[in-house]
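User: Before I run my own analysis I want an independent prediction to cross-check against. Here's the chain; please return only the structure tokens and, at the end, one sentence I can use as a sanity check.
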Amino acid sequence: MDRRKFLGTALAGPAAMALSGSIFPHATSPIAATKYGRVRGFVDQNINVFKGIRYGADTASRRFMSPVRPDNWTDVKDAKEYGASSPQQGRGNDKQSEDCLFLNVFTPSLRDGGKRPVMFYIHGGAYSGGSGSSRLYDGVNLCRRGDVVVVSVNHRLNAFGYLYLARFGREEFADSGNAGQLDLILALQWVKENIAEFGGDPNRVMVFGQSGGGAKIATMMAMPTAKGLFQRAATMSGQQVTACGTLNGTLRAKAVLDALKLTPENVQEIRTMPFQKIVEVLNTKDPVLPFGSVNFAPALDERNLLRHPFYPDAPSQSSNIPMIIGNTHDETRAFLGGDESNFKLTWEQLPEKLIPNMRVDIQPEVVIEKYRKLYPTLSPSDLLFKITTASRSWRGAIIEAEERAKSGFPAYAYQLDWVSPRDGGKFGAPHGADIQLVFDNIDKPGATAIGPEAHSMADAMSETFIQFARTGNPNNKKIPNWKPYTIAKRETMVFDVPANLANDPRGEERKLFEKVPYGQPGT
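Assistant: Structure tokens:
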């Protein structure tokens, strides 16, 4: 009888359950001891899974204030279901609550001193929506593939996390414009204090996030209280060049207060009214931008955020953190592709369609003329998606990559070009297409990657992110040699079949739009 079988016989029963996850790392109900109390998870394909672990106290009584650590508990809390999402619009039957400071941990083993790389994922949805409980963010496959620990997180969003009320004079509002960011920092502090229990290395944490998640990461790279909490960063179609100014933030706060029929005299009522009333007015028209509902973003509050994330340069506090900056080739097909008429545009219709969707002030006819010379075979609809991607979604990523290169600590830049054959390939490589590939979750409900090439794409991207989490260098056998981005060559890894390193892909498009001043949408 070998040692494992002997222990299995000798310790069977209640004693074995008490040690589950230690001697028996894949017990049916593994138990982990956090700083605040014990939690009981479950096993999925030999991976220990803990969902809905509390990392912060209920925020209801501290609405718009910085988060605080949870109270200790003495019993064993079940951690088998995702915690509530932040209140928001459009999430259907999802459980929502101001008591939303929960995270999820996926790990191969507990308490084994494994010092595994930690991959801390921040969900997208701009700063207004989303949740860490999407099936596409399930960490089991990453754990099995790379012997890593995966963490996903919920935090406060929209008005609850980013409504800048500080100019209304009450101390309770001082942190309101960055409360959601402070939640993420508290979650990372939880990781630093607890992740060794889950077999992870608190000094080898990679934050990665898509869309709004990437923007939140870019912002944290300039927040002093986030310093030292993560050692690698990867952003996927999410950038934050500038934060929201406090005056525009105040205009937005006033628009929300007006919608709630509140005045500066009774503004304190916003802290105690039912949260559903605030959710009801989140679609209030933005008073700064000419489009959309109130735009929420981190505030340059001179308290938690002392500078813009990537303006006028890359933040020096995080210059030594290895970074990946990525985007997809057809970002805006995800935003504009839901309107079938956008696939049937005429040349006459294209200029007016571009004006509200480029998000920069440039004569559309000049842009169209340039693009027709660059891509003479493309249709008006093709150019709509191509132009809006370059001017709206891609531009910030280029600026961040340039600033990192200028700082002497260049980032690794990538572009996802691979097109899933789903829907005949009409959506190209849209915003969000890289999530399922990085997580190797192409078989999950909601995934759009299909066909014989999908698995090789998932292999390449997931292996690349795992290697980056492990060493700070993304190079591995699944891709050609990936060199950091320099101003001279603008090296960019193009993820396709096969992957290839390209110098300044879409360079002429970049040059066209770089002559137009860039302002982060919403700031």
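Sanity check: Residues 37 and 73 are 5 Å apart (CA to CA).
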